[in-house]
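Extended Data, panel c. Modelled sequence:
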Amino acid sequence: MESGSGHQLFQFENLGDEGGECFSTDTEHDSVPEFSAHELSSLALVDEIESLSPVIRSQVHNLADEEAPQIYAVCGRGARSALRIVRHGLEVSEMAVSELPGTPRAVWTVRRRESDSCDEYIVVSFVDATLVLSVGEEVEEVKDSGLLATAPTLALHRVDGGGLVQVTPRAVRHVMADGRVSEWQPPQGREIACAAVNARQAVVALARSGGHAIYFELHDQLGVLREHEQALHVGSDITSLALAPVDAGRVGAAFVAVGCEDQTVRVFALDAARCLEPLSVQAVADSPHSVAMVQQGVLTLYAGLRNGLLVRANVDAVSGELSAPRTRFLGARPVQLCVATVRGTPAVVALATAPWLCHVVQGRVRVTPLSYDALDYAAGFTSDQCAEGLVCIASNTLRILSIDRPDAIFNHAAIPLSLTPRDFVLNATSRHFAVIETEHAHLTSAQAARELVARGDINESEAETAILPPEQFGLVRSERGRWASLIRVLDPFTGDSTQIIELEDNFAAVSLAQVEFGGETFVVVGCARGMTLSPRGCQAGAISTYRWAEEGTRLELVHATPVDDIPQCLLPFNGLLLVSLGGTLRLYDMGIRQLLKKTQSSVSPHVITMMRPHPQLPNQRLFIADVQESIRLVAYSPDTHVFRTV
């Protein structure tokens, strides 16, 4: 099924023979069958391909004060038309938001066993404490997890055998499946600055140690983490660590990435033959705030820098050499990297002034912003209700998010309109739009209800329910030559219409412009009464002038100026209003009772359908489009007040 907003795919639920309603297929009588509409009972919506077609008008603004501007477009036709707000980024669904008792610093999700399909715990780290929450039908605090709750957590991961490894500033704690705890503590007076952990390995870096790090491996017989006989020495304080993903056929990661204060990212080997041997180094523009390594076709290293840059490089799976580095600026804030899963493949969530997703689409790595608020930390999340999601922290809240369409580059929100939109303008002060909507040979729901009441078919109490929903069944048809038209003022943030002005006496709104007269901004609407399309003409034309009222949320009619043709186009020009009437250009100034005509010139043989000012000489030149004669350049002489074709 094709709708005004795209294509919809339905599935048959039944053949319609389960209900108790009677149907007639008699074709021998001329009587019109009557029926009562109801919701779909035999069809179910399976999928929908959204579309902006047709786009009537569009503008680019940053009304939401976001990192990137938004595209505002009036689209569609009839009752399925809408004002759509298009953003560059992936659409994010917010599944849950909960306040936390303080401001968290990090969050993790863990499973007790590798075979588990869902996460068991959400672990939130604060400045001086750790909160453990169980994942189930309800999220509840857990007291007997074995994790230390009186210290912040730097890293957390499930360990083979059903245990957990928790790294705090003062210890590496291995919580075994039977409840026993094995603990390693740094030397006296030292603290752990950062750590990286997987199911069998752990690397911890000591703070203010000149780049000293300790490497641990899981002992196969004892089932505990064992400190490696050699330590890692970098020569510069370590700011971040990341272990490479474990390849198939291996029991541990082959590499560890180390971010250092000397503005470098280094790769060290972890296999038995060359354990802790330096393999490669990459100089970056600032100290790394976080690093991550994921398998995205090739082994890929990500480094989030303190100056807001994201660096991505390929890692050779054998030699560990870094190649093909790429840099992208994500915002004026240190970039925090978190590994997640999107559609079954590893992805990296980069958190700066806005969240970004680095994932693979059709074999290529794509870095796309998320259309969501700024986040502080994130982790992959899986539950019965959310197969692939993110658990995030923002300020003092814990949020669970889902990315439904990771392959889409843009997302949009729709504000429904009643009729086919023709044009719209923005009040920059109140951030409200004025939209004109016009439909030929159709009635609005209010007009159709009033006619039914006037004919006596229904009473006034039935008027609200007598008309079927136009977005599903379409507008009520009328005779040719009859027009339904309105002017709408709406708030793009809430989607509410603060004012709707229905045009009466068969007037149709054709054109719209916002003009400044004497320092005050007015909204000018070109209207035509009894307009016919073939042959083109109208019974009467008018230019209605409105001023913004109630702080820019409503329009107030000032006056209407009669004209002798359809005012097809309106354009602010030299502090005046330029109007196209057929092939004629006419300049108007503001008057007390109506607009005052200043000059008139015939510049086109047929009908002018569009006017645009010259980008370099907007007060002297403009481009006009004729319905048959393509585009012309028109010059204006301020001395003689005459328009002529160049």
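The chain has three helices and 56 strands. This feature is highlighted in the accompanying rendering.
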